[in-house]
Write a structure and sequence with these properties.
Blueprint lengths: L5 E5 L2 E5 L5 H21 L5 H73 L3 H10 L16 H8 L1
Antiparallel strand pairs: 1-2
């Protein structure tokens, strides 16, 4: 099998590189290395090639380490957000179940009210007539009407 070499220039030197990555990727990496070396030479013009290369290498490793640290923080934050999301989803499910229980209770009590209203409506009118004769004209409709109040009546009652 014949090896495929890529020739790149970093600084003033040419290098023949073999890599498993794509040729364009290797060229981009070499270009960034060349830019970093040029940045070091611009800042410290009196350095030799070897010293500039070592300083560029240290800077690259420093940047990589800082980026890895930031990545670690981002992943930690992501894990925390995922935990919070799971808690929120569990709370949502609990609230949804609670809502369904409330709806069932509402339907039960609505049906119960309807049943009692039917029963109250079936009370003989004679009972309402006896109530009518013994009380004022305001209470003449149904037996429980005398207990009902309007908002205006409640306001005067509170005073």
């Amino acid at each position: 099998m014949e090896e495929d070499f890529i020739t790149v220039k970093i600084g003033s030197m040419y290098y023949r590189i073999t890599a498993n990555e794509d040729r364009e990727y290797v060229r981009e990496v070499a270009k960034k290395a060349n830019e970093l070396l040029a940045e070091i030479r611009e800042r410290y013009g009196s350095l030799g090639d070897a010293a500039a290369a070592v300083l560029a290498l240290l800077n690259a490793i420093d940047r990589g380490t800082k980026m890895a640290s930031k990545d670690s923080e981002v992943y930690d934050n992501l894990r925390q957000v995922q935990k919070d999301l799971e808690k929120s989803l569990a709370e949502q499910m609990r609230l949804r179940e609670n809502l369904w229980e409330c709806k069932k209770d509402l339907i039960y009590y609505r049906n119960l009210c309807e049943m009692y209203e039917e029963r109250l409506d079936s009370i003989p009118r004679s009972l309402s007539k006896t109530t009518k004769s013994s009380s004022s004209g305001k209470d003449s409709l149904r037996p429980l009407d005398r207990w009902q109040r309007t908002m205006e009546e409640m306001e005067t009652f509170d005073e």
